[in-house]
Amino acid sequence: MYILAIESSCDDTSAAVLRDGILLSNVTASQAVHEAYGGVVPELASRAHQQNIVPVVDQAIKRAGITKADLNAVAFTRGPGLMGSLLVGVSFAKGFARSLGIPMIDVNHLQGHVLAHFIRESEDDHDQPDFPFLCLLVSGGNSQIVKVNSYKDMEILGQTIDDAAGEAIDKCSKVMGLGYPGGPIIDKLARQGNPDAYQFSKPNIPGYDYSFSGLKTSFLYSLRDWLKDDPDFIEHHKEDLAASLEKTIVDILMKKLRQAVKDTGIKQVAVAGGVSANNGLRNAYRDHAKRYGWKIFIPKFSYTTDNAAMIGITGYFKYLDGDFATIDLPAYARMENK
What global pTM score does this model have? Predict the structure, then answer.
């Protein structure tokens, strides 16, 4: 049983092919056009998707060693994401599936990130979490602690009330003049810096919810004061600034997660989303595994960013349940519009 998966929620056009839940190909075209603007420009993103989607799907099918006639279903990201980007993928998936006379499967993008831990690259790959498990989902748009009871039963225990962790990193990087996307830049600099060089504000939010707006403000005001005394402060201290910023964000994330593990008693703990590629966060997970006896699940770097493989594995589970989409299902930019 072959599934073609399509992901186009933001600025990466991705297609993957799975056979009985085993990944055969995963092809992604990224968009460099946004770097000059310091963030993703929705109109440019949707135009690039239109250019990329046909060759990306073609390559995914060819690398899987099959033809489109072999496909049994098409899974696609329906939302959340940028509406213009989503429309390209959703429209293509509908037309492609209709032309082949095969069913469609709509996938929630965030659910896909969580289920990326179930992507298998071979029959012998069995390193997946058991249900229930906790997952820290951290990206440019989301910071959530999710209790995963099954592939289709996920309970959000806590989430950001303002900025997401990845968003805070990107904005602080922009303030420092380091470029976009800020995550990989901050990560690289942080490895060379002192994480205890500077202290930034940590929020005191009840429950499992997060807040990163105060940290962003604290970082901005501190930087402004330091620049008054030394106009070249950022250049002289960028490694320490990056390391201290990273440590603060990781500390905020892990404190809430520790509390969730303690309260639920669930010690199988995963991380997902773009920020899960961060070296400091990965090291914190390994440290907590040793200190608290957690069984941790950290995705391969290729599955941290937006990719069609995670949409494919989610689609595979839905296919087994006979949970198919109708042709009239619209894309949705936000969760409440679903």
Answer: 0.93
- In sequence order, the 6+-apart residues with CB closer than 8 A to the CB of 75 are 3, 4, 5, 6, 93, 104, 105, 106, 107, 311, 312, 314, 315, 316, 318, 319
Q: Are residues 16 and 111 in the same domain?
A: yes
Reported as a single tens digit per residue, the pLDDT across 124-169 is 988 999 999 999 999 878 899 999 999 999 999 999 999 999 999 9
Shared-domain flag, residues 16 and 67: yes
Kindly state whether residues 191 and 275 are assigned to the same domain.
yes
- Residue 98 sits in the same domain as residue 57: yes
Same-domain check for residues 297 and 307: no
List the one residue out of 74, 79, 61, 84 whose CA is nearest residue 11. 84
CA 18 to chain centre: 20
Domain match, 152 and 116 both: no
143-150/133-138 β-pairing: antiparallel
If you search the block for the tokens 């993008």, which residue do you land on?
109
Buried-exposed string 257-269: b where 16+ CB fall within 10 A, e elsewhere? beebbeeeebbbb
- For residue 139, give the CATH number of its domain: 3.30.420.40
Query: How many domains does one find in the chain?
Result: 2
Which amino acid would we find at residue 324?
F
DSSP H helical ranges for the chain = 42-63, 83-100, 109-115, 165-175, 182-190, 213-229, 233-264, 279-292, 308-320
pLDDT score recorded for residue 181: 84
DSSP structure class, residue 147: E
Query: What are 292-309's pLDDT values in tens digits?
Result: 999 999 999 999 999 999
Question: Domain of 105?
Answer: 2-125+303-337
